[in-house]
Amino acid sequence: KEFLVEISGTTVTITCPLTEGSIVWELTGIKADSNERKYVIEHHDSSPANVSCSSGDKKYEMYLNARVCTNCEELDALAVAGIITADLFITFGVLILVYYFSKDRKGRASASAGSRPRGQKMQRPPPVPNPDYEPIRKGQREVYAGLESRGF
């Protein structure tokens, strides 16, 4: 047989497995006033305690390490599942919105400094020099010496 422990706020209710006789409760070495099957601890401070209940020659012991709080809200499994599901839907909704809004910007060229234009990936070779407009190099002036200015 086992103890039944119920926690609500800062109140801890313990039910002894013994059913018959006068039940004596002992909480961390101190005998309690209650002789009933249920023992109620009001304003429990979450400190661990050794709890025992006895009747005649039968004695049951338990180590109580119950965490309690004053402003706690009890949630059932359905509420927790609903909260998690709603959070996932909101997260996926934001991801889809970001995806569709960023998809439109992929075709535009960025104007940030240091970025190169997105034209052709290969550089074009330099244009073929026109022989009529070659620069005059040192030592080659005689090539152009025979040219005379034309009159218009």
Description of the molecule:
The protein is an alpha+beta fold. Among the domains are: 61 residues; 32 residues. 21% of the residues lie in helices and 22% in strands. The strands form two sheets. Strands 4-3-6-7 form a four-stranded antiparallel beta sheet, with no helix packed on it. Strand 6 and strand 7 form a beta hairpin. The longest helix has 27 residues. It is rod-shaped, with a radius of gyration of 45 Å. The mean pLDDT is 79.
Strands side by side in the biggest sheet: 4-3-6-7
* Extended strand count: 7
Report the biggest beta sheet as strand number plus sense, adding barrel if it closes: 4 strands, antiparallel
% residues in beta strands: 15-25%
- Uncertain residue segments: none
Give the helix tally: 2
Percent of residues in helices comes to 10-25%
| Morphology | rod-shaped
The radius of gyration is: 45 Å
Keywords: Cell membrane, Immunity, Immunoglobulin domain, Membrane, Receptor, Signal, Transmembrane, Transmembrane helix
Membrane topology: Single-pass type I membrane protein
Region (Disordered): 109-139
GO molecular function, one term: transmembrane signaling receptor activity
Keywords:
152 residues; alpha+beta; four-stranded antiparallel beta sheet; 2 helices; 7 strands; 21% helix
Q: Which secondary structure elements does this structure contain, and how are they paired or packed?
A:
Layout: E1 4-8, E2 11-15, E3 24-27, E4 30-31, E5 38-41, E6 49-55, E7 58-64, H1 77-103, H2 141-145
Antiparallel strand pairs: 1-2, 2-5, 3-4, 3-6, 6-7
Keywords: Cell membrane, Immunity, Immunoglobulin domain, Membrane, Receptor, Signal, Transmembrane, Transmembrane helix
Protein name: T-cell surface glycoprotein CD3 epsilon chain
Subcellular location: Cell membrane
